[in-house]
UniProtKB/TrEMBL annotation:
Record SUPFAM superfamilies: Clavaminate synthase-like
Protein name (database record): Fe2OG dioxygenase domain-containing protein
Keywords: Iron, Metal-binding, Oxidoreductase
Signal sequence interval, chain numbering: none
One GO MF term attached to the UniProt entry: oxidoreductase activity
Species per Swiss-Prot/TrEMBL record: Piloderma croceum (strain F 1598)
UniProt keyword Iron present: yes
Highest taxon, organism lineage: Eukaryota
Annotated InterPro entries: DIOX_N, IPNS-like_FE2OG_OXY, IPNS-like_sf, Iron_ascorbate_oxido_reductase, Oxoglu/Fe-dep_dioxygenase_dom
Length: 330
């Protein structure tokens, strides 16, 4: 658990040490008391907009269709377009994986909307879709609020890493290379999930620095599951907790930390049907992916290597690594 850093320096350092230990040993943590009441209201409102967006007709949603370029993570992707794979790069094996039923979800991606942003956003035409008037403004504000949370979280983590400066991550995250993904997992007859005919998201890790996951405040069933680091192949539920944010380490940060910090497998499954249920309810979530600046070349974080723990990786730019990972996901 992580508490606000608006405390004494000693208490802040203790929080950082506990947070680092959670990231080292598990790779996941629930962050509580991190958002202000105003920020939590932004979260709640973003979920309302997400419901409105995914409730539109397919024709209207496709007016903001995601570009065909697989590296352009912006705009709307319909149900069945994506199939997550985990660290597989062989083209023939990827082709076989993509024959499996695609992830049963739809999504809308957005990022930094500044004129200097690396990837332009793809916005639905609000002037032609009255239900979405105000969506873009709120999404942009949500993105900015996420940057404030990012600074708190990365500072707390740096404070816990032995040998790293408290502001270590700042210079590597100056360009706001983050991505918001609005996710909707539609409901369906329970039997199609039980039989495996449909799935939500297969086991995978995230490939950036880290992720802040906002779970639907109205969701009482959940679906996110995290692999137990002590029992490979065994997944445990990570249910929604009111006011909490789920944090996890990404693959790039795992590499950056010389594998000291853990990027843990996780998946999304449809909840097991309760007695009398024949239909699985839909689910909404919002991951906020935090990424380092693409052109920054990184070496092992100070404090994550020693004579007994030599550096395992050569320096690499963020773009080189992300391009390699993204090629295996679509």
């Amino acid at each position: 658990m992580l508490y606000p850093l608006l405390t004494s320096p000693e208490a802040a350092r203790e929080i950082g040490n506990k947070f680092f230990a959670a990231c080292r040993d598990v790779g996941f943590a629930y962050l509580i008391n991190l958002t202000t009441a105003e920020q939590q209201e932004h979260v709640n409102k973003m979920f309302q907009w997400s419901r409105t967006l995914f409730g539109l007709s397919e024709e209207d949603k496709m007016r903001a269709a995601r570009p065909k370029d697989p590296t352009w993570h912006r705009g709307y992707s319909g149900v069945g377009r994506e199939q997550v794979s985990q660290m597989e790069y062989d083209p023939d094996k990827l082709a076989e994986l993509r024959k499996v039923a695609p992830d049963y979800k739809e999504s809308f991606d957005l990022g930094n909307d500044a004129p200097t942003a690396r990837l332009p956003n793809v916005w639905p035409p609000e002037e032609e879709i009255p239900a979405l008037r105000g969506f873009r403004a709120h999404a942009k504000e949500f993105f900015e609020q996420g940057l404030l949370l990012e600074k708190k979280v990365l500072k707390a983590l740096a404070m816990g890493i032995p040998g790293a400066a408290d502001n270590f991550f700042d210079e590597y995250h100056a360009d706001a290379e983050n991505q918001i993904r609005l996710l909707h997992y539609p409901g369906a007859p329970a039997e199609v999930f039980v039989s495996g005919a449909k799935g939500r998201v297969a086991p995978h890790t995230d490939f950036g620095t880290c992720t802040l996951l906002f779970q639907d405040p109205e969701d009482t069933r959940g679906g996110l599951e995290v692999e137990d680091p002590r029992k490979p192949g065994h997944f445990v539920p990570a249910p929604p907790v009111a006011g909490a944010i789920v944090f996890n380490i990404g693959d790039f940060l795992m590499r950056w930390s010389n594998d000291m910090l853990k990027s843990t497998l996780h998946r999304v499954r449809a909840p097991s049907p309760q007695e009398g249920e024949t239909h699985t309810c839909s689910r909404y979530s919002i991951p906020y992916f935090i990424g380092a600046d693409p052109n920054k070349k990184v070496e092992c974080i100070p404090g994550c290597y020693s004579p007994d723990r030599p550096k395992r990786y050569e320096p690499i730019t963020v773009k080189e690594y992300i391009d390699m990972r993204m090629s295996a996901n679509y």
